[in-house]
Amino acid sequence: MTRAQGVAADEETSPRSDQGAKVQLGQIVREFRANAGLSLNALAAESGVSAGLLSQIERGNGNPSYNTLIKLAHALGVRVGDFFGGHDPEPKLAELVKADSRRRLLLSEREMVYELITPSMNGRLGMIRAQVASGWSNESVPFMHEGEECVLVVDGSLVVVVGSERYELAEGDSLTYDASVPHWYANEGDRPAVFVGAMTPPSY
């Protein structure tokens, strides 16, 4: 293998590349499934995600929808944020995360991007930046986790439903709520929406 071929191979398996993100996610899902003592078919039955799609994800040959990740997190008893993966850094007085080195989820939906702003999800605070596609909603698989959460819309608009209460957020609006209450998001606008979410403890 030439040096150029070696560099290309490294780039393909880097978590920052599309293929690297797929491979990393597959490894994480397979590890969580093994730790839970579930076969592929058992996880499929528990999550409602087909065994064929699960097999593709675990082999790094496909990227799931965001709602599929929520279903898998519920079935595996993990946080959606755990799918960001990566090694947790050693605790430091301050930790810089460069914009081009954030951990991210590669999703099947066009214009859907989820990035981790904090170094990991294992500190006292977790933050994400999300771009949500027009027309997307997770009403069918709402979030519910411990802690308090705040979302700030930085571009576009976002609907957030907490329990039975519906909130319509425009650019610059923020909403803080008890994350243990079932909640879901929807982008009813005609363009992608971007928001920043903060949660304590990191339980997203």
Our measurement of the CA-to-CA distance between the termini, rounded to an integer number of angstroms, reads 42 Å
Quaternary structure state of the chains depicted: single chain
CATH superfamily of the largest domain: Jelly Rolls
Strand order of the largest sheet: 1-2-3-9-4-7
Q: Any idea what the shape is?
A: globular
Specify the helix fraction band: 25-40%
Largest beta-sheet details: 6 strands, antiparallel
| Beta-strand content estimate | 15-25%
The unreliable regions are 1-15
CATH architecture group name of the largest domain: Sandwich
Task: Please report the number of helical segments.
Answer: 5
- Tally of separate domains: 2
The count of β-strands is 9
In words, what does this structure look like?
This protein folds into two domains: 3-84, lambda repressor-like DNA-binding domains (434 Repressor (Amino-terminal Domain), Orthogonal Bundle); 99-200, Jelly Rolls (Sandwich). It is built from five helices and nine strands. The protein has helices spanning 3-13, 18-35, 40-47, 51-58, 66-76, and strands spanning 104-106, 113-116, 126-132, 148-155, 158-162, 165-169, 174-178, 183-186, 193-200. A six-stranded antiparallel β-sheet has the order 1-2-3-9-4-7. Strands 6-5-8 form a three-stranded antiparallel β-sheet, with no helix packed on it. β5 and β6 (165-169) form a beta hairpin. The radius of gyration is 17 Å and the shape is globular. 26% of the residues are buried. The model is unreliable at 1-15 (pLDDT under 50).
